[in-house]
Amino acid sequence: MMKISLSDKISIYGKEIHNRVLFQPMEGCDGTEEGAIGELTFRRYMRFVEGAPGVIWFEATAVCNEGRANPRQLYINENTLESFKNIVSEMKAKSKALHGFEPLVIVQLTHSGRYCKPHGTPEPIIAYRNSLWEKGKEDQPFVVATDEYLDSIPAMYKKAALLALEAGFDGMDVKCCHGYLFNEFLSAYNREGRYGGSLENRTRLYLNCIDAVKEAVGDKAFVTTRLNSCDCFPYGYGYGVNENEEIDLTETKQIISALRDKGIELVNLTIGNPYLIPHTNRPYAVKSPEDGNIGMKRVYDVTKEITSAFPDMKFVVSALTFPGEDAIEYAERLLSEGIGDIAGFGRMTFAYPTFYKDYLEKGTLDKKKVCLKCSKCSELMRAGTVSGCVIKDSEIYMPYYQKYVLKK
């Protein structure tokens, strides 16, 4: 086994990355009403840059207003473009000044589907009716997207990609995970028409949007994706689980083969749905329905099976925060075993954005700063307020305190 350090360089799409630390797309829900970069958004990414990651995977950014997950979700359009230009240029300039290199910056383009809430109340646009996902939400105005509406979405992605290219992003992520629109279509087994039934139909929208984005950016930027390897719901309510209630990655591998055929070199792997089963992709320790080590093992097994099947591609491995002080060592062990090529950190970046820089300088992480795995950041996002670490970050604690503590 060849020892891999997170400080080792790696190349993707012909671009050399300074190290193998990747900050995952973590929504702060702190943009402006128009979808521009807000003050807290700017502050967060400047803090991220201080941590010296080789890649910053920019958070979910809507391609249309109706596809926003909350009224403060970022939305790239003609009116917000300048704010995106500014933050990307500032991120790269600050990293160059502090660390001597520019991080690779990838934007995550999204349509929130059944989690659309552009005006603060649910306005779900769904692939099909799902009784498990809709339990307790029967009063919501669910709208099953028509084939005609779906036909219009690739043009939205193309337009957003052109703007993102102008903003200076290096890569474009066509998001297909965590229960959002494209991910939901992967389990639209009983939907009629061009977008349901066969795997070809269920991936049609996703792959058409990848084509649209690739056409938009050409060789000026690369196209990648964050993909749910499996939904981890009971059979019939998601994809990636068979009739024996076992994880089955047969279709996942077929999807990744199709991505490879389209020239996708890097896939960011994840699982589950943070709205309904957050412990699957973000194992946590406080009032979790399962031991976090079980969740870690699940992610490990899924990632190992996929990466073993595609040795010619590169993958981001996720769910690395749970080991706490040992997170760096754990990530390096996985990469050394060939389970992924780049280490993706999510919640740790909210709580302790300089964790990697500290590790480089001190050889260890500060126990007082690491993520506590309490899942408050996930709770905040689901509640529709500003998200972040309420424990370690006073700027996030105050909105949380005012909205939740004072009202009790």
Please tell me about this protein's structure.
It is globular, with a radius of gyration of 20 Å. The longest helix has 21 residues, at 147-167. Helix content is 36%, strand content 13%. It has helices spanning 39-50, 81-99, 147-167, 181-185, 199-202, 204-217, 250-261, 292-309, 327-336, 347-351, 355-362, 376-383, 394-405, and strands at 10-12, 15-17, 21-23, 55-62, 74-75, 104-110, 125-126, 143-144, 171-174, 222-228, 266-270, 314-317, 342-345. It is of the alpha/beta class. The strands form three sheets. An eight-stranded parallel β-barrel has the order 3-4-6-9-10-11-12-13, surrounded by four helices. Strands 1-2 form a two-stranded antiparallel ribbon. Strands 7-8 form a two-stranded parallel sheet. Mean pLDDT is 94; it is low at 404-408.
Brief synopsis:
The chain has 408 residues and is α/β, with parallel strands linked by helices. 36% of the residues lie in helices and 13% in strands.
Find the count of extended strands (DSSP E, 2+ residues): 13
- The percent range for helix content is 25-40%
| Name of the CATH superfamily | Aldolase class I
- Determine the structural class based on helices, strands and strand pairing: alpha/beta
Instruction: Kindly report how far apart the N and C termini lie.
Output: 54 Å
The fold-level CATH name is: TIM Barrel
Question: What's the structural domain tally?
Answer: 1
Work out the strand percent.
5-15%
CATH class: Alpha Beta
Main β sheet profile: 8 strands, parallel, barrel
Question: If helices are DSSP runs of H or I spanning 4 or more residues, what is the number of helices?
Answer: 13
Q: Over all CA atoms, what is the radius of gyration? A: 20 Å
> Could you list the spans in which at least 5 consecutive residues all have pLDDT below 50?
404-408
Sketch the topology as an H/E string, one letter per element: EEEHEEHEEEHEHHHEHEHEHEHHHH
Strand order of the largest sheet: 3-4-6-9-10-11-12-13
Anisotropy-based shape:
globular
CATH architecture: Alpha-Beta Barrel
What's the average pLDDT? 94
